[in-house]
Amino acid sequence: MFARTRLLQIAEGMKGRRIVVYGDIVADRFIYGTPKRISREAPVLILRQYRDDILLGAGGNAVNNIHALGGVPMPVSVLGNDAQGQQLVDSMTAQGIDCAGVIRAGRYNTPTKVRILGGMPHASRQQIVRYDIEDHCDLTEAEVEQLGGALQQRMAAADAALISDYGYGAVTQALAKALTSAAAGKPVTLDSRYDLLRFSGITAATPNEEEAAEAAGTSLFNGDNDVRLRQAGETLRGKLGSEALVITRGSRGMALFERERAEPIFIPVYGTDQVADVTGAGDTVIAAFTLALAAGASFAESAKIANYAGGIVVMKMGTATVSNDELRRAIERDEALPE
């Protein structure tokens, strides 16, 4: 089904493809420290901080991955008019990403996921605790109009679009519908953490097993229970009315359900199931999947490309990206592929 030459052609074709990324952008903050001693105040470890990184998370991570894979991301979102929001905008503009579609709202605090990691600087670090600084942005009429105009303008020049809904308020049902209407047949993909079924008119969605089970109204799949997975996948794809659905399954790879295909396609995980960090892997998957669709790949080919990208990124610590060169090397080294 998959040929090396064809997949390499798709990887090359992903370069320069313009993708609208409409979604919630959050700050992924990583604070690193070396163990100092046990506190006398409480039985807790004291760390001496040596590093503090703020990275693009959620929809911002999808933006980063599209850029790393050679695409041209066009973000449309809302960020707080705070230090975290400014750092994220600065990070994107430093890469040459146009942030004119990103609104700054003074009443809104940029959501920040803070992870504390301990370990020696040149050894593996263990995540000790994570805490989230959250807010919800209720869009004003003026902001809705501004975002709607940005989506319509960018979609006219784009090859595809990606909706990244983390529930912080930037993504609304009405604006998502306006985006799919403006797409006029171009691929529109969806990653929604909590409310997949409020969106319609999308081309494909990429939930994980837990998200898919909840949206399909069933309990979690047990291990390799493919029968229940098939039932849930077809039920969910039907409810969404999408052409395709990709369920990511962690160490078991992916399952692709298509409207025009009677049986799902199961794609085994790429690489090892001994992962380093799954932070942001779903953002990488949908970024690669959308770029491949924009490059003219089939749903199956796009899922295969996304499977490589996901397998690469989980071997990296933190909120990471996959480059086009890394993707090509993975395809070239896959001995299971025919030429």
Description:
- Helices cover 36% and strands 26% of the residues.
- It has 339 residues and is α/β, with parallel strands linked by helices.
- The chain has one domain: UDP-N-acetylmuramoyl-L-alanine:D-glutamate ligase (3-Layer(aba) Sandwich).
- The strands form 2 sheets. A 9-stranded mixed β-sheet has the order 5-4-1-8-9-10-11-12-13, sandwiched between helices. A 4-stranded mixed β-sheet has the order 3-2-6-7.
- Helix 2 packs across helix 8 and helix 4 runs parallel beside helix 5 (173-183).
- The longest helix has 17 residues, at 141-157.
- The chain is globular, with a radius of gyration of 20 Å.
- The chain starts with a helix and ends in a 6-residue tail after the last helix.
- The mean pLDDT is 92.
Attribute tags:
339 residues, UDP-N-acetylmuramoyl-L-alanine:D-glutamate ligase, nine-stranded mixed β-sheet, globular, alpha/beta, four-stranded mixed β-sheet, single chain
